[in-house]
C-alpha cells in the first residue's frame, strides 16, 4: 500500500520528517511506500483522515478533540514530550493586563482551533472565565504582532520563530508561558482502520518520527536553515525556537488522555465543540 502522510508547517516533527526520507525507509522495510500530502491548516487533519486524503497526521492538542466531536473515528498513536516554551501569550509591556482575569472583554489573536485554543480556553477556565463569552477570539494573521504593539488588540498567542523574533525586538511582555497552563504536546493520530488493520505501519511511522526528532535535536542550525528558507524569518530566530522543543516522541499514556479529556470538557462547556466526547474512545481497542 501507499501510505499518505499529512504534513503542515505547524507540526515540526512531521515537517522535518518529510525532508529526511526516514518514513520512506521504514515503510520500504515493510514492502510499502510513502507519499506526502502538504496542506496549510492543521485543524483540517481529522477531516483529511476521515475522507481518505491522508492516512496519518500530526497536530497540537486541539484538532484531535474537534475531530472526535465531528464524529471521526481517529486513534492516537504517539505524542511528543511536553513543549513548555513552544509558545506564549503576549501583551504590550505597558498594558494594564497583568493577570488572565484582566483579559475579560478583550480581543485575543490566536490560531483558532489549534493548541492555542486549548491554552486560552484552559487559562480562562482556571481564572473562572469563559472562552465563549469573556473574550473575543480572532484568528491571528501576519499583522497580529503589529496590531498588538499598536494597541488594536489585547493579546496575541505567538509560537516558534515569530515568538523568538517578537522577544528579540522587545516591547512585549509574556502574560502566560504555555507550560504554566498546558503541556502542549505534539499529537499524532490516524484512522482506526489503519491503526487496527496495519499496526506495523503505525509502528514504522513512529520509528521514523523518532529518527527525525533525533536528527533535529542533533542538527538545530541545519533544521533552522531549512525552516527559514521555506517559511521565512531568520535562521537565528528559528534556531532559538527549535532548540526550545523537546524532540522526543513518547507513547500515549493515561496522563495524556486525562489532559485531553480536560480540554474536551472545557471545549464542550464553552460551546467550542457541540457535544461531549470521551477521549479514551480514540485509543486502540484491546484484542
Automatic annotation (TrEMBL):
Residues 2-219 form the Solute-binding protein family 3/N-terminal domain. InterPro entries: Solute-binding_3/MltF_N, SsuA/THI5. It comes from the Bacteria. Pfam families: NMT1. SUPFAM superfamilies: Periplasmic binding protein-like II. Belongs to the bacterial solute-binding protein SsuA/TauA family. This is ABC transporter substrate-binding protein. It comes from Streptomyces zaomyceticus.
Amino acid at each position: 500500500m501507499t501510505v499518505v502522510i499529512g504534513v503542515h508547517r505547524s507540526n515540526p516533527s512531521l515537517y522535518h520528517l518529510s525532508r529526511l526520507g526516514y518514513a520512506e525507509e521504514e515503510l520500504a522495510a515493510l514492502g510499502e511506500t510513502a507519499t506526502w500530502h502538504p496542506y496549510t491548516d492543521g485543524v483540517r487533519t481529522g477531516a483529511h483522515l476521515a475522507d481518505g486524503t491522508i492516512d496519518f497526521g500530526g497536530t497540537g492538542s486541539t484538532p484531535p478533540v474537534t475531530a472526535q466531536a465531528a464524529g471521526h473515528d481517529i486513534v492516537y498513536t504517539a505524542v511528543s514530550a511536553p513543549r513548555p516554551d513552544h509558545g506564549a501569550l503576549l501583551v504590550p509591556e505597558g498594558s494594564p493586563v497583568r493577570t488572565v482575569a484582566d483579559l475579560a472583554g478583550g480581543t485575543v489573536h490566536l490560531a483558532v482551533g489549534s493548541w492555542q485554543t486549548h491554552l486560552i480556553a484552559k487559562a480562562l477556565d482556571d481564572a473562572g472565565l469563559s472562552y465563549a463569552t469573556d473574550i473575543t477570539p480572532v484568528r491571528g494573521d501576519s499583522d497580529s504582532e503589529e496590531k498588538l504593539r499598536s494597541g488594536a488588540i489585547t493579546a496575541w498567542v505567538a509560537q516558534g520563530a515569530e515568538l523568538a523574533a517578537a522577544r528579540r525586538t522587545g516591547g512585549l511582555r509574556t502574560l502566560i508561558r504555555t507550560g504554566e497552563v498546558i503541556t502542549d504536546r505534539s499529537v499524532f493520530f490516524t484512522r482506526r482502520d489503519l491503526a487496527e488493520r496495519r499496526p506495523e505501519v503505525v509502528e514504522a511511522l513512529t520509528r521514523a518520527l523518532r529518527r527525525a526528532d533525533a536528527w533535529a535535536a542533533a542538527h538545530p542550525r541545519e533544521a533552522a536553515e531549512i525552516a527559514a528558507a521555506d517559511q521565512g524569518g531568520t535562521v537565528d530566530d528559528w534556531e532559538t525556537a527549535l532548540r526550545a522543543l523537546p524532540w522526543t516522541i513518547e507513547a500515549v499514556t493515561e496522563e495524556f488522555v486525562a489532559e485531553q479529556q480536560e480540554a474536551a470538557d472545557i471545549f464542550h462547556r464553552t460551546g467550542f465543540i457541540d457535544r461531549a466526547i470521551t477521549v479514551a474512545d480514540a485509543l486502540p481497542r484491546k484484542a
